[in-house]
Design a protein that fits this description.
Length: about 375
């Protein structure tokens, strides 16, 4: 492949309902759609998932745009790329900025799969033909959360994740368990606790949770190891895992029993696959987290989740979960708790150019 041009689309999509956690409430989602084109007119699409403010990580949409425009696009454009895994090496001298790296690398993976006439799932080595759908329920008042959980169960979701914080954990989990004693349930803390809260966290062992996600600091693996020794419930790391080496160190320290792989957080599909393979070797299950993506990012997550060790349902829901209209067609749908992995070339979904144009606020071609 030789990349002839790259187009950046900054889009703004309105969430059907605000999505809250212990750190932020998101009402509108700003994203970067990266379109790479070769000389034959083939196109591949990736998505930059950084938020407009640095509440999740230090990276923002504005810093991602700068890194793509001024540094990453010049590195990959006009160079021969035999395989998209090479992009990881091309960008390796750039420190961090994983969401910008994923945006350009994901687009190149899509272009490669299309040129090879195969699905992105097959290009990555995926074998699962349909994936179990999970869904996240944002922080809100107890009755609103219970009502939303009821709606998601009726829609067929196999696993529910709820947001918790020290002022809203035992009460909401108790209410959920009283109503749904057998529900596959996990809790996401988004770093809301410290080791001073260890007794409060140990109290969560009584709710038969699949896992507690990222209870402690976003950059920590040492205190999580101390906490995991005290908990019966598996700890899942999210923000703490920003690279393959982070995952390796966390597993060496027994900091967690599960890892959430988000390709935007770890720097791309190549890095995601490396972490998947490491966890598979260590007997540690993984799942794919969500970043309130558009259909482009969601399609990448579906392909990634077709790898064999993604045994826990991820935060991959139907397009209609968040959007009145998505920017792909057909839109992602959940049928009886599952999403079919597309078999068409590349990501397996077509870009809805009309809808993309409607939600685009900035467009630049390089």
């Amino acid at each position: 492949m030789i990349i002839e041009s790259v187009t950046l689309h900054q889009i703004k999509m309105n969430l059907k309902t605000p999505f809250g956690n212990s750190l932020e409430t998101v009402s509108d989602r700003d994203l970067i759609i990266v379109e790479v084109n070769d000389a034959e007119g083939n196109s591949g699409f990736g998505e930059g998932v950084a938020f407009t403010t640095p509440w999740y990580t230090e990276e923002t949409l504005q810093t991602s745009w700068h890194m793509l425009r001024d540094i990453m696009i010049p590195l990959v454009k006009k160079r021969f790329i035999a395989h998209p895994s090479e992009v990881n090496g091309m960008l390796s001298e750039i420190r961090r900025n994983p969401m910008a790296k994923y945006a350009i690398e994901g687009a190149i993976w899509d272009l490669y799969a299309k040129k090879e006439g195969i699905s992105l799932s097959k290009a990555l080595g995926g074998t699962i033909k349909k994936i179990k759908a999970g869904v996240a329920v944002g922080a809100s008042d107890q009755e609103t959360m219970l009502e939303e959980i009821s709606n998601r169960i009726l829609e067929g979701y196999e696993r529910i994740k709820v947001k918790i914080k020290p002022s809203q954990d035992v009460s909401i989990l108790k209410a959920i368990r009283e109503r749904y004693p057998n529900l596959s349930l996990m809790a996401d803390a988004n770093s809301a606790y410290t080791l001073r809260d260890i007794d409060q966290l140990k109290a969560l062992d009584g709710f038969n949770l699949l896992m507690i996600e990222q209870p402690l600091a976003a950059d920590d693996i040492v205190d999580h190891a101390k906490l995991q020794r005290e908990l019966k419930t598996p700890i899942c790391l999210d923000e703490s895992i920003a690279s393959f080496d982070d995952a390796r160190r966390a597993l060496d320290l027994n900091s967690c029993q599960v890892i959430n792989i988000k390709p935007g957080r770890v720097g791309g599909l190549t890095a995601s696959k490396m972490i998947h393979d490491l966890c598979d070797e260590r007997g540690v299950p993984v799942w794919c987290g969500g970043m309130l993506e558009s259909g482009i990012g969601r399609a990448h997550n579906i392909a990634l989740s077709s790898l064999s060790n993604f045994v826990i349902p991820g935060d991959i829901s139907a397009s209609t979960r968040y959007w009145e209209r998505d920017i792909i067609h057909p839109e992602v749908i959940v049928e009886e708790g599952y999403i079919n992995v597309p078999e068409g070339n590349g990501i397996g979904y077509e870009l809805n150019r009309k809808e993309l144009s409607r939600v685009t606020v900035v467009k630049e071609v390089y």
